[in-house]
Specification:
Low-confidence stretches: 1-20, 26-36
GO molecular function, one term: peptide transmembrane transporter activity
Mean pLDDT: 90
Shape: globular
Structural class: alpha+beta
CATH topology of the largest domain: Dipeptide-binding Protein, domain 3
GO cellular component, one term: ATP-binding cassette (ABC) transporter complex
Keywords: Signal
Pfam families: SBP_bac_5
Number of helices: 14
Organism: Streptomyces caeruleatus
Helix content: 25-40%
Strand content: 15-25%
CATH superfamily of the largest domain: Dipeptide-binding Protein, Domain 3
CATH class of the largest domain: Alpha Beta
Length: about 500
Amino acid sequence: MRLPARRLLPATALTAASALLTGCFAGAENTADAGADGKRVRVAMMQPPRSGLSPLSDDAFKLSRWSTAETLVKLDEDGDARPALATKWQQSGRTWTFEIRDGVTFHDGTKLTPEAVVTSLTKAATASPKPRILDGVDLTAKAAGDKVTVTTATEDPLVPQRLSSPQLSILAAKAYQGKTVDPVGAGTGPFELTKVNGTASASLDRYDAYWGGKAKAPGIDVTFVPDGTARAAALRSGEADIVEAIPVSQAAVLDQDLITEVPMPRTNTFYLNTEQGAFKDASLRAAAREAIDAESIVEGVYEGRADVAEGLLGPALPWASELRSPVEHAKAGRPNGTEITIGTFTDRAELPEVAAALQQQLQKAGFKVKLDIREYANIESDALAGRFDAFILSRATVLDSGDPAAYLYSDFASKGTFNIAQLASPEVDKALQKASGAKVGDARRKAVMAAEAAVLAADAAVPLLHERVIQGDAAGVVDAAHDPRERELVTADTYVK
């Protein structure tokens, strides 16, 4: 397959975008006083707030990335829970007891207490709709002296990981006084959210009483820039210090020293319908797998800015490759003109190109391939109902808990709610149940990889590639976070020279 040339952004587009951004960042530039404390950090972010920065929505991840709202625990690189606003915890059946960190104050000056923690967790647990980390989870919180107890309806080994979700941030009582949750001046992090200008911008100032030590930057000025061309231009012109989510098509025109490609826990996967149609035949599933050249897709569609998949779980989970074992597959059969229909959606710009590449590869192997490409909202129900022989999906492989077992169960268990492969395998179900119930740590990770191997052995899915997020940091930026889970961006250690 002939690879397309890299798509270059015209200089005129960059000039126009730069002019657009100049007005957006003008106010931030005026406040970027260089002094003993350095400069304020100017950030260009992709998505504007959708719910007024309520932590009970996906806006919670912005609060986390600005280091203004914090949770009881945080996750390390392996997805294990580590202390944050809670210093330690222990489990007793369905109940977990958390010791709350002493000496922490909210940005309004009030103290962090067990009662404040209970208020935040209860608001989240009783919200409608609930934060997705609590979907299907019945959770109650109570204050017990200087501790907080969290009880679930059934025993849950992932409670600490769940409590790391930015949607379960702990805020001051003032945040809950209105009809919506208002995080302004209500967090505990090194930066205090002081002003939100609708969907245009936000400002944060350093909180000098932060329990973890004084931040190195005096503040953060955020501008929401949905247009990828404009975000790229802001980095190139020096109008922004940190730029998130630079599109692949524009990365090539930027100074490569200013770009960091961060592996995401997201896999582009080719799901095969194991219940009906051509791919009910395991030998034809094997033939499809052998026909696919993922490397050419990475180079041609993603311009080399993705990682060829070795399994369902990618480099964003560094332990996965270390624990992965070879998989035995069924012998490939002969397609002999077998007709198949592949579905995917337009919402992610690269997926139609991926579909076209797969069409060519599978036709070369002897399949007759038809494509059905629509908006996701118009195609999801057909995919879940098994109306395609195969489906291409870009899928997050860890949910808010940082644990991949839930994704694997959802997508490949016979009772999974997102089982596009229509897989019903006793061997796979057994492996998934073991992974879901295993204790957090090495035992759970090994069980997860055994479940991945069972899915791959069935050829229910062919992992193609792992996506990356491209982040831009100006030359003067020091210690910006490069977080695969997109929970951190500007931390207490981040500053601009």
